[in-house]
Amino acid sequence: MASVSLIANRHQSQLVMVDMQEKLASVMPEAISQVVRNCAVLLQAASLLDVPVVFTEQYPKGLGHTMPDLMVHLSNKTPVEKTAFSCCAEPTFNRRLFGDKPQVILMGMESHICVLQTALDLLKAGKQVLVVEDAVISRNPSNKENALNRLRQAGVLVVNTESVVFEWLGLAEGDAFKAISKLIR
Q1: Which residues are catalytic?
Q2: What single string gives the DSSP state of each residue in 42-104?
Q3: Is this structure's pTM higher than 0.70?
Q4: pLDDT at 1 over 50
Protein backbone atom coordinates (compact mmCIF):
# COMPACT_ATOMS: atom_id res chain seq x y z
CA MET A 1 0.00 0.00 0.00
CA ALA A 2 1.21 3.50 -0.81
CA SER A 3 2.33 5.63 2.12
CA VAL A 4 -0.58 7.97 2.69
CA SER A 5 -2.28 9.80 5.50
CA LEU A 6 -4.67 8.07 7.89
CA ILE A 7 -7.21 10.77 7.11
CA ALA A 8 -8.92 11.59 3.86
CA ASN A 9 -6.77 14.00 1.87
CA ARG A 10 -8.48 15.68 -1.07
CA HIS A 11 -5.22 15.82 -3.02
CA GLN A 12 -4.76 12.04 -2.65
CA SER A 13 -8.43 10.98 -2.87
CA GLN A 14 -10.84 9.77 -5.45
CA LEU A 15 -14.48 9.06 -4.64
CA VAL A 16 -16.22 5.96 -5.95
CA MET A 17 -19.99 5.49 -5.81
CA VAL A 18 -20.98 1.85 -6.29
CA ASP A 19 -24.36 0.91 -7.83
CA MET A 20 -26.69 3.50 -6.29
CA GLN A 21 -29.46 2.45 -8.67
CA GLU A 22 -33.22 2.96 -8.57
CA LYS A 23 -34.34 -0.67 -8.59
CA LEU A 24 -31.76 -1.70 -6.01
CA ALA A 25 -32.78 1.21 -3.77
CA SER A 26 -36.43 0.17 -3.91
CA VAL A 27 -35.65 -3.04 -1.97
CA MET A 28 -33.46 -1.41 0.67
CA PRO A 29 -34.53 -0.70 4.26
CA GLU A 30 -35.76 2.70 5.39
CA ALA A 31 -32.17 3.82 5.99
CA ILE A 32 -31.75 4.30 2.22
CA SER A 33 -32.88 7.94 2.41
CA GLN A 34 -30.04 8.81 4.82
CA VAL A 35 -27.53 6.90 2.69
CA VAL A 36 -28.67 8.80 -0.43
CA ARG A 37 -28.38 12.08 1.47
CA ASN A 38 -24.83 11.23 2.59
CA CYS A 39 -23.83 10.16 -0.92
CA ALA A 40 -25.17 13.48 -2.22
CA VAL A 41 -23.16 15.41 0.40
CA LEU A 42 -19.99 13.54 -0.59
CA LEU A 43 -20.60 14.09 -4.30
CA GLN A 44 -21.17 17.82 -3.80
CA ALA A 45 -18.13 18.18 -1.54
CA ALA A 46 -16.02 16.30 -4.08
CA SER A 47 -17.18 18.69 -6.78
CA LEU A 48 -16.41 21.77 -4.67
CA LEU A 49 -12.94 20.45 -3.80
CA ASP A 50 -11.99 18.95 -7.18
CA VAL A 51 -11.91 15.36 -5.91
CA PRO A 52 -12.40 13.05 -8.92
CA VAL A 53 -15.51 10.84 -8.93
CA VAL A 54 -16.19 7.50 -10.61
CA PHE A 55 -19.55 5.76 -10.36
CA THR A 56 -20.81 2.37 -11.42
CA GLU A 57 -24.07 0.70 -12.39
CA GLN A 58 -24.55 -3.04 -11.95
CA TYR A 59 -26.41 -4.48 -14.96
CA PRO A 60 -28.46 -1.31 -15.63
CA LYS A 61 -30.76 -3.13 -18.09
CA GLY A 62 -32.16 -5.10 -15.19
CA LEU A 63 -31.47 -2.89 -12.18
CA GLY A 64 -32.11 0.54 -13.65
CA HIS A 65 -29.89 3.57 -13.62
CA THR A 66 -28.36 5.72 -10.92
CA MET A 67 -30.94 7.41 -8.71
CA PRO A 68 -32.00 10.84 -10.05
CA ASP A 69 -31.29 12.46 -6.65
CA LEU A 70 -27.64 11.51 -7.16
CA MET A 71 -27.37 11.97 -10.93
CA VAL A 72 -27.98 15.71 -10.50
CA HIS A 73 -24.54 15.85 -8.82
CA LEU A 74 -22.84 13.87 -11.60
CA SER A 75 -23.28 16.26 -14.51
CA ASN A 76 -21.40 15.26 -17.65
CA LYS A 77 -20.16 12.02 -16.06
CA THR A 78 -21.11 8.61 -17.37
CA PRO A 79 -21.37 5.45 -15.29
CA VAL A 80 -19.12 2.45 -15.60
CA GLU A 81 -21.49 -0.39 -16.49
CA LYS A 82 -20.59 -3.75 -15.03
CA THR A 83 -21.85 -7.24 -14.39
CA ALA A 84 -19.00 -8.34 -12.10
CA PHE A 85 -19.56 -7.66 -8.42
CA SER A 86 -16.13 -6.11 -7.92
CA CYS A 87 -15.75 -2.86 -9.81
CA CYS A 88 -12.10 -3.80 -10.31
CA ALA A 89 -13.11 -6.70 -12.57
CA GLU A 90 -14.34 -4.13 -15.12
CA PRO A 91 -11.45 -2.75 -17.22
CA THR A 92 -13.26 0.58 -17.80
CA PHE A 93 -13.40 1.15 -14.05
CA ASN A 94 -9.67 0.58 -13.70
CA ARG A 95 -8.95 3.00 -16.56
CA ARG A 96 -11.03 5.71 -14.87
CA LEU A 97 -9.22 5.43 -11.54
CA PHE A 98 -6.48 8.00 -11.08
CA GLY A 99 -3.10 6.35 -10.64
CA ASP A 100 -1.77 9.39 -8.76
CA LYS A 101 -4.60 9.25 -6.20
CA PRO A 102 -3.71 6.50 -3.69
CA GLN A 103 -6.86 6.89 -1.55
CA VAL A 104 -10.13 5.45 -2.80
CA ILE A 105 -13.20 6.44 -0.82
CA LEU A 106 -16.11 4.05 -1.38
CA MET A 107 -19.84 4.53 -0.91
CA GLY A 108 -22.86 2.68 -2.32
CA MET A 109 -24.57 -0.67 -2.23
CA GLU A 110 -24.60 -3.42 -1.35
CA SER A 111 -22.05 -3.27 1.44
CA HIS A 112 -21.46 -7.01 1.63
CA ILE A 113 -21.27 -7.68 -2.09
CA CYS A 114 -20.05 -5.04 -4.55
CA VAL A 115 -18.61 -2.59 -2.00
CA LEU A 116 -16.81 -5.37 -0.10
CA GLN A 117 -15.36 -7.09 -3.17
CA THR A 118 -14.29 -3.77 -4.70
CA ALA A 119 -12.61 -2.65 -1.47
CA LEU A 120 -10.69 -5.91 -1.12
CA ASP A 121 -9.56 -5.81 -4.76
CA LEU A 122 -8.45 -2.16 -4.39
CA LEU A 123 -6.40 -3.13 -1.32
CA LYS A 124 -4.77 -5.90 -3.35
CA ALA A 125 -3.96 -3.29 -6.02
CA GLY A 126 -2.10 -1.19 -3.44
CA LYS A 127 -4.72 1.50 -2.81
CA GLN A 128 -5.62 2.86 0.60
CA VAL A 129 -9.36 2.21 0.92
CA LEU A 130 -11.81 4.17 3.02
CA VAL A 131 -15.43 2.96 3.23
CA VAL A 132 -17.99 5.53 4.34
CA GLU A 133 -20.09 3.66 6.90
CA ASP A 134 -23.09 6.00 6.75
CA ALA A 135 -23.02 6.06 2.93
CA VAL A 136 -23.19 2.28 2.35
CA ILE A 137 -26.15 -0.04 2.76
CA SER A 138 -27.28 -3.65 2.45
CA ARG A 139 -30.79 -5.04 2.38
CA ASN A 140 -30.06 -6.84 5.62
CA PRO A 141 -28.38 -4.61 8.25
CA SER A 142 -26.49 -7.59 9.69
CA ASN A 143 -24.88 -8.15 6.27
CA LYS A 144 -23.65 -4.54 6.32
CA GLU A 145 -22.28 -4.98 9.83
CA ASN A 146 -20.50 -8.18 8.80
CA ALA A 147 -19.02 -6.50 5.72
CA LEU A 148 -17.72 -3.55 7.74
CA ASN A 149 -16.12 -5.93 10.26
CA ARG A 150 -14.44 -7.90 7.48
CA LEU A 151 -13.21 -4.69 5.85
CA ARG A 152 -11.72 -3.43 9.14
CA GLN A 153 -9.94 -6.77 9.60
CA ALA A 154 -8.54 -6.47 6.07
CA GLY A 155 -7.11 -3.00 6.73
CA VAL A 156 -9.80 -0.76 5.27
CA LEU A 157 -10.50 2.46 7.16
CA VAL A 158 -14.19 2.72 8.04
CA VAL A 159 -15.14 6.39 8.18
CA ASN A 160 -18.23 8.61 8.08
CA THR A 161 -19.47 11.35 5.77
CA GLU A 162 -18.72 14.30 8.04
CA SER A 163 -15.21 13.07 8.84
CA VAL A 164 -14.41 12.74 5.13
CA VAL A 165 -15.67 16.18 4.10
CA PHE A 166 -13.99 17.98 7.00
CA GLU A 167 -10.75 16.04 6.47
CA TRP A 168 -10.89 17.08 2.80
CA LEU A 169 -11.38 20.70 3.89
CA GLY A 170 -8.69 20.74 6.55
CA LEU A 171 -9.55 24.33 7.56
CA ALA A 172 -12.70 26.09 8.76
CA GLU A 173 -12.44 28.89 6.24
CA GLY A 174 -13.29 29.87 2.69
CA ASP A 175 -16.20 29.44 0.32
CA ALA A 176 -15.92 25.64 0.15
CA PHE A 177 -16.12 25.43 3.96
CA LYS A 178 -19.25 27.59 3.99
CA ALA A 179 -20.91 25.56 1.22
CA ILE A 180 -20.05 22.19 2.79
CA SER A 181 -21.16 23.32 6.24
CA LYS A 182 -24.59 24.09 4.78
CA LEU A 183 -24.74 20.63 3.17
CA ILE A 184 -24.35 18.78 6.46
CA ARG A 185 -26.79 20.78 8.55
Answers
A1: 19, 82, 114
A2: HHHHHHHTT--EEEEEESHHHH--B-HHHHTTSTT---EEESSSSGGGSHHHHHHS-TT--EE
A3: yes
A4: no
